Amino acid sequence: MWSQVLFLLLSGALVRAADHEVYKNCSRVDVCSQNRELERQDRFKVNPEGAVFGNGLASFQVQNLDETEDFFLNITAIEGNIFRLTFEEKASLRYHIQDVLDGEPTSINFDDVQLSLTSADIIVGNDRVTVNYSPLSVEFYENEVLQFVVEGDRLTLQNEELHHPFTFGVTFPQASYLYGLHEHADHLALRTTEPGGDDPYRVRTMDDTYYELYSTMAMYGAIPALYGHGSTSTSGLFLHNAAELWVEITNQPAGGPGAYFMADSGALDLFVLLGPSVTEVVRQYTYLTGVAHLPPIWTLGYHQCRWGYADQQDVQTVIAELDATDFPVDVIWLDIQHTQDMKFFTWNTENFSDPFAMLQNLSSTNRYLVTLSDPHFKKEEGYFVYDEAIANDYFIKNPDGTPFEDECWPGTSSWMDYLNPDARDYYSSLFLYENWNGTTPALGGIWNDMNEAAIFNDGNEKTFPYDIVHYGGVPNRDIHNMYGYLQTMATHKGLMDRDNGTRRPFILTRAHFAGSQRYSAFWTGDNTAEFGFIPISYSMCLNANLLGFVFCGADVGGFFDEPTEELLQRFYQAGAWLPFFREHANIGSERREPYLYPEEVQKRIREAIKTRYAHLPVWYTLFYEHTRTGDPMIRPIFYHYPEDQDAFQVDDQLLVGSDILVKAVGESEVESVQVYFPGGDDLLWFSAQLDGTFYPGTGFTEIPVTIDRIPVYYRQGSIIATKQTSRPSTTDMKDDDYTLLVFLNDDLTASGTVYIDDNLSFEYRDSMRYNYLSLSTDGTTLLSVSIDESNNEGFDLVIAEIITVNPEKSRDEFLDLKNPYHHFRVTMSTHQGLMARDNGTKRPFVLTRSHFAGTQRYSAIWTGDNTADWGYLSVSYSQCLDANLLGIVFCGADIGGFANDPDVELLQRWYQAGVWLPFYRAHSTSGSMRREPYLFDEEVQQVIRNALQLRYKHLPVWYTLFYEHTRNKDPIIRPLFYHYPQDTDVYRISDHLLVGRDILVRAVAEAGVESVQVYFPGGAEEHWISIDNAEVYDGNGFVNISVTIDAIPVYYRRGSVIVRKETVRLSSDEMANDGYTLYVNLDAYNKATGTVYLDDNTSFNYVDNKEYNYLKIDMEGSDVTLTKVDEDANSNGFDFVIDHVVVNKVIKEPENGSFGRYEQKLYTKDTSQELLKNLKFTFDEPAKIKLT
Fold first, then answer.
1. Is the pLDDT of residue 319 over 60?
2. Which among 165, 170, 501, 1134 is least buried, having the fewest CB atoms inside 10 angstroms?
């Protein structure tokens, strides 16, 4: 049997549409064909004398004018603007479904009941329900506006022994369009289906192979909820019934759109949702049916799947290849081939012989596995599940009481009866680690497929016959649509029990019903590799989100057939913006893992996946907010712009939350697409590329597109929390810092939220261990406030950078779409916030990773997440020199490398090189070994200590250079060509730098070297004096210099005065009042010159009040002259105190390629020297010191 079925699937590419011989239309199904054109007739009237009111319940006796059975109309008021109506015969045989509602809704008392001869009015708050006696109808008003009507002239009830069909009609007087009746591959706004046109929408779970686009045919899911939305209000209904349903959508211009429900069986149990907004209707529906719990965060990453990963080596290879080609991924999936002969809860002993090892391997890379578990079980004595189910009566039965059998993947099979609580418990127990051999927590999720149920028997539309019997004698026709729901409920319990409730389960289901969102995610089923299936995935998932089922996605690339490279890229780009993001393909399709494609294709797919991972904080926060409010994660435009009638039918775009607008590209080879921008002229939408483009919310706009990406925009006024460091998986990103994207309103305000917890457990729910933050700015200060008094310890919001988009142009210029928004200023808001915090009295320090022209006004930068590799040490000089030439002078690199672990030699060399970059910081990732200097051997500590002390001794040099940069814009560190522009040999030297003009440094960026080539610039007349020995070199180019691990080559320029502080203390603050030491490097004429700058080190008084001392130092012969550069500067309190003068004088000139020598004399107050120690100079006039 298996080979026959496989052949059919492999050859299925020849079939391009659903088989209409197998799948019936309305004319072939009794409940639809017999009722669709039933004449409207006033069959019923209320007997007012039989009405009963009390305890929030109104019960009306309704007489059937056809002299058939009377019934009761019961109306209950439920908290939150909801009403419940039931229509029930006196001797009802109807089945009432259980376990679907999320607990029994809370009923409330009526405020008033007003009776007249023709009607009864029930008053609850601002709502009024009017029951018209004859002809029967029920009208629902909100604030005295008619919102919803149940039409008595379309009501029928048949109470037969084996069959209980009913019909009813409703209208939505305030609505423009109707939405809901999930699941259909159709537009979001339901279309009219009156006789002569399309079939009514069929609501029945079934496996519609090669399902058609824009069709009313039934599919895998069945949610009998319907909303009517108009520009002034929204209302809705939920039919609490799991039988097959057909719904005609009607257009009644005088009374708004309507719907005619034709149900095959069960109870007419109707909830009316009175909104009055679309947000409130969604929340009312999720109040009834529940919300999802927060999933483990890894489920929001990228999932790699296909029907056909044949063995555990294949699994390992796919993950390794994705890692090698830099594609983040969190999950790999196994279809039915992982089982032994397609028997669930077994492993294929040949191809998956060591599942424990496979799972351990996945766990070591922070990845998870998801496996398939269908509801059918192979008929085979000796198969433990089958034997146990037969012995305990756990299978669905035929009407004669025998186990129901039919054909599916294993051949002859039986189906677990999940309506039976004992069968559910047994099935749940199979997931326990002790019952499923080889499983570990790395088996993170379960895939419930084929649970409509799907059967290989065309006679019953490839699903259950109507008359097979479930637990308690319930025929399948009464609960058909909730069968898959019941399986996921049992699976969820199994995973909860398996981990003792400590880990959040993940389940993906194909079949689903109202309430399925509490237990599972779902996908849009077996789609096809065609462009039309891209926009339909948005429409289908938007519909599901409105009906509470938020965790939705579509098979990226298409399950059936082969996508072109263009189509595959577009699928990835669109799929990255659906809550569930999985690539999946049929066993007969070609392998399509991203790494198999040309590099240009890989690049685009990689960008789509990495964009997804960068926005994981957005997805996780939205999911948490759904658990609080029931709000959708993705939303149609009208959800936030309910009055914008032009947006009511837009369904190839979506909003991620309220702040990200995405347009799917669902056509081939297009160069532009129509994007709808909502919100009006006063709202701007900024390109997610941060390339300066933006558009006002004035409706459809033609947007150019390339194959590189699809249109994505951020809303003005939003704060978007992202993580910009690319990692292999979500687990690897856990401790990464956040980057906030701030898009300021015209009044410079913006707001957002972010949610943080442990990503895996239920402690967020059970112990309130989380941090949920409100983010806001007024343009100067960023404020983050915890929304709840939760236990947020360990869940800090650590911000790496803030990117602020601030439109500075006038409104007229905004409308020129070719005009960029002038500057988007990296860290500007942070800088302004720190300034405001201290009232402008203290100089802020901000470090940013992302930067742009002008960044230097607000922050320092570092070279980002470098790696513990020698090449990264060398390139840090190149990167910071480049930045200095472009004005961003305050630059450094993570000492030791952020990622991976440096060896001891590399760490020492990095400390030595980093001394001579303006920003000096050791930093590493959480996964690297601790590398604080004190953790190393004493010899290593001493080398690092010497480097640090050298940095602190030269702090006056750095501080003076920084001040001079504020005056003249010169770089702090400079490439050699900056001062020697005619020396063509230096143009490409990037492992040397000049600190200012006077200090030459050469990084040692190779392991184990005993010498390096140092380039000495300036020609024969320029000399360079080593700071570590008495050697002097002329500026005639490269010289091979011996090095040890103790130091790197550093030289002072002859003719310079270097101002240092020789007493090294624990911090720069503690050195503030120490005296200075002058290192005077005399030239051939016994002259030298330098500068030094002093102020209070912290405030803006140097700018605002000119409180500083800036000195020029000149030496000639034995005289040192100190001259105040700015005579009007207020230098009181900034005396220049000299402790020592060190004079370096060349005594042997370098010549013929050999180095020279210098001697060093120290002048200080002791028994042998004449220079007085602690000379103080107030500089009312130039001061002189004579060295003797």
1. yes
2. 501
How far apart (Å, rounded) are the C-alpha atoms in residues 446 and 488? 9
For 165-215, write each residue's pLDDT tens digit. Answer: 999 999 999 999 999 999 999 999 999 998 888 999 999 999 989 999 999
Residue 94: C-alpha distances to residues 67, 243, 477, 755 (Å): 20, 11, 12, 46
Return phi, psi of residue 222, to 5°: -150, 100
Strands (E) located in 98-224: 112-115, 119-124, 127-132, 137-142, 145-157, 166-171, 177-180, 201-203, 221-222
Helix (H) / strand (E) element for 487: namely: helix 483-498
Dig out the tokens for 1092 from the structure.
Answer: 């030094």
Q: CATH 3.20.20.80 residue ranges in the chain?
A: 311-508
To the query of whether residue 449 is one of the catalytic residues in this protein, the response is yes
Element (H, E) at 85: strand 82-89
- Which homologous superfamily is 26-289 in? glycosyl hydrolase (family 31) (2.60.40.1760)
SS3 content of the chain, % helix, strand, coil (to 5): 25, 30, 45
473 φ/ψ angles, rounded to the nearest 5 degrees: 75, 20
Q: Active site includes 526?
A: yes
Locate all alpha helices (DSSP H) within 355-420, ordered by sequence: 355-364, 384-392
Placement of tokens 């002790």 in the chain: 434
In angstroms, the CA 811 to CA 1169 distance is 72
Distance CA 384, CA 883 (A): 69
CA nearest to 541, candidates 505, 575, 569, 571: 575
Beta strands in 806-855 (DSSP E): 824-826, 847-848
Q: How far is CA 547 from the centre of its chain?
A: 22
Q: Where in the chain is the domain with CATH 2.60.40.1180?
A: 671-844, 1054-1188
Pairing of strands 506-509, 443-448: parallel
Angle at 527 between CA 523 and CA 533, to 5 degrees: 100
Q: In this predicted model, what pLDDT tens digit does every residue of 707-744 receive, in sequence order? A: 999 999 999 999 999 999 999 999 999 999 999 999 99
Strand boundaries in 1082-1148, DSSP class E: 1087-1094, 1109-1116, 1119-1124, 1136-1148
- What CA–CA distance (Å, rounded) separates 342 from 693? 54
d(CA 1017, CA 998): 12
Q: What is the DSSP letter of 531?
A: T
pLDDT tens digits, residue range 322-368?
Answer: 999 999 999 999 999 999 999 999 999 999 999 999 999 999 999 99
What SS3 string covers 706-749?
Answer: CCCCCCEEEECCEEEEECCCCCCCCHHHCCCCEEEEEECCCCCC
The dotted CATH code for 671-844 is 2.60.40.1180
Where are the CATH 2.60.40.1760 domain residues in the chain?
A: 26-289
How would residue 1175 be classed by pLDDT, with cut points 50, 70 and 90? low
> End-to-end CA distance of the chain, in Å?
107
Angle at 402 between CA 400 and CA 405, to 5 degrees: 115
Single out the catalytic residue among 417, 526, 561, 736: 526
Q: Say if CB 242 and CB 97 are below 8 A apart.
A: yes
In CATH terms, the fold of domain 311-508 is: TIM Barrel (3.20.20)
**212: which DSSP letter?**
P
Can you tell me whether residue 115 is helix, strand or coil?
Answer: strand
SS3 for 910-977 is HHHHHCCCCCCEECCCCCCCCCCHHHCCHHHHHHHHHHHHHHHHCHHHHHHHHHHHHHHCCCCEECHH
The single-letter DSSP state of residue 891 is E
Q: What is the CATH number of domain 1054-1188?
A: 2.60.40.1180
Q: Which two tokens stand for residue 664?
A: 């799917």
Rg (CA), the chain: 38
